[in-house]
Design a protein that fits this description.
Length: 274
């Protein structure tokens, strides 16, 4: 009886390991939550230009360019990478805040999200980010020294990877995890997640390669990515760096104390984009 019970437990354990190994893509990427654009920058009074970006491997990405007046008037450009669920239409509040600070924004949906073609993957999102960077520098004409990479949640892993390969004016990691294996190990402490994870988004490791100013934003009340991840990212980064603690949960931290959020973000940008 004991051995039969042990065999059942072992089979369940192995089954969970197999599920996480083979299905982690559907656990990390949630593009199907809402692929429709239910709003656009026009709904909040902002002009925008629809974008179609083509990646190096032939995927077509849907995005928007939201100007801050004319390019000459723009303080700089934010290239924004959103989290693992929803699409660009769910990030209008960010677009408004960036516009209020005199910043233009390039925002796009990863492959498989929104109206973009393909299926999401870690390496795929990195190629998507490279396509956005090329459009920002070669088509829109913004020099690297006037571009801020802003990553929200999973988008922080995408932004960190791009920042390690380019030389942006600054990098912002908002509600970002240190790595997928680190987060998974906290969710499933009895499973060997670091061995099972082939999706990594190792932002902590990337920080060793990043020299630009860094702003880490996190809430103690984040209900998805623990606050400790933000602190570890901040502590691992080289200066210049700042940490902004916000209120609220994972998806609405910037809403609480909005004016303070804008003021501190503006203060962080002043040395690089006065």
């Amino acid at each position: 009886m004991f051995w039969s019970a042990l065999q059942i437990v072992l089979l369940i354990y192995l089954g969970l390991m197999a599920l996480i190994y083979f299905r982690q893509g559907s656990m990390v990427f949630l593009p199907e939550i809402d692929r429709d654009y239910r709003a656009s920058p026009t709904d909040i009074g902002l002009p925008f230009t629809p974008l179609k970006l083509t990646t190096a491997d032939g995927e077509n990405l849907d995005g928007w360019f939201v100007p801050a007046g004319t390019k000459r008037e723009a303080r700089g450009l934010v290239v924004f990478f959103h989290g693992n669920a929803g699409n660009i239409a769910h990030r209008l509040d960010y677009l408004r805040m960036f516009h209020d600070l005199g910043l233009a924004t390039l925002i796009m949906d990863y492959r498989g999200y929104g109206k973009s073609s393909g299926s999401p993957s870690e390496q795929g999102t990195y190629r998507d980010a490279e396509a956005a960077w090329l459009h920002a520098t070669q088509v829109l004409g913004f020099p690297a020294g006037r571009i801020v990479l802003f990553g929200e949640s999973l988008g922080g892993g995408v932004a960190a990877q791009l920042a390690a390969k380019t030389h942006p004016a600054a990098l912002v990691l908002a509600s970002t995890f240190t790595s997928v294996p680190d987060l998974g190990a906290e969710l499933y402490p009895l499973l060997p997640i670091h061995w099972l994870a082939h999706i990594r988004y190792d932002s902590l490791a990337r920080l060793e390669e990043i020299a630009c100013p860094l702003l880490v934003i996190h809430s103690r009340n984040d209900d998805i990515i623990p606050y400790t991840h933000g602190r570890r990212l901040f502590e691992a980064a080289r200066p210049p760096k700042q940490f902004l603690e916000v209120e609220g949960g994972h998806n609405d931290g910037f809403v609480f104390g909005r004016e303070d959020w804008i003021r501190q973000f503006d203060g962080f940008l002043q040395p690089v984009l006065p």
